């Protein structure tokens, strides 16, 4: 089982001499993120790392983000601000802002996160950086969501957990296919060698997962999931905002490599077919013990695999609600996939 790779994963730390603390540029794109910049940016600026800068791209903000950044710049000399002004005729997405941030970066190693994200520790940069040994050009980090009240919070965290298990396990199997921009690192030379986002600049989303999909290989990609290296944020608080976010992400998925789309489609279909089979058996009035047995066998296998992984990824509490969340998640993915086929226009913010 593919997900078993993450279950049994144990990091082997290379010798200190193999991962020198080279300069790093942290890049954050922010549009109307005044409050988040006030609350979170200092945690990035105060990382325990000998040589780094933080590049914040203030992308057409209409709030007081500029004021907040100017105040922080006076306190933190390693904060660099790139400002994009609104243009009446030229409209751009996040990829343009990310590209400007990369061009402004002084260092070869780039580390990405968002304005609403909080590093779990002051060792975040250091732990992500430690993975750049030998041929490494991409480091896939993990970014969980804070636990809150209500089913929506649990559902989003479960969806994020499932997504992480998948892309991290595939990376361990030598088949990396995506990453999440809340905690992602790659080299500047890789970005420019492959012409950045040029091949998918027409797609509003995908500055993270599409870039990884098109540039990652078995040899150049590793994962980092230690608790101190994780980056936390709050999930969407309304179903409508979450739906818009997922529709935007699905737009990028259409541009994945054909082999990846086939694999992911088969995965989604197999889970959906399992529940469809149960429904058909119920309609056909199959014996209750047979239905329960089929369901429990699958559930037991899932829990054996997911429990150790959930501990590693700080989502152990979700397993109490696993049956309801798994059913809801698979139904949601099917509906989302169908709707996204007809959705044409999406935007960053």
TrEMBL record:
Protein origin, superkingdom: Bacteria
Keywords: Membrane, Transferase, Transmembrane, Transmembrane helix
Pfam families according to UniProt: Glycos_transf_2
Signal peptide: none
Transmembrane segments: 262-282, 288-307, 319-342
Domain Glycosyltransferase 2-like: 25-155
Keyword Transmembrane carried by entry: yes
Gene Ontology MF, one: transferase activity
Name of the protein this chain belongs to: Glycosyltransferase
Organism: Arcticibacter tournemirensis
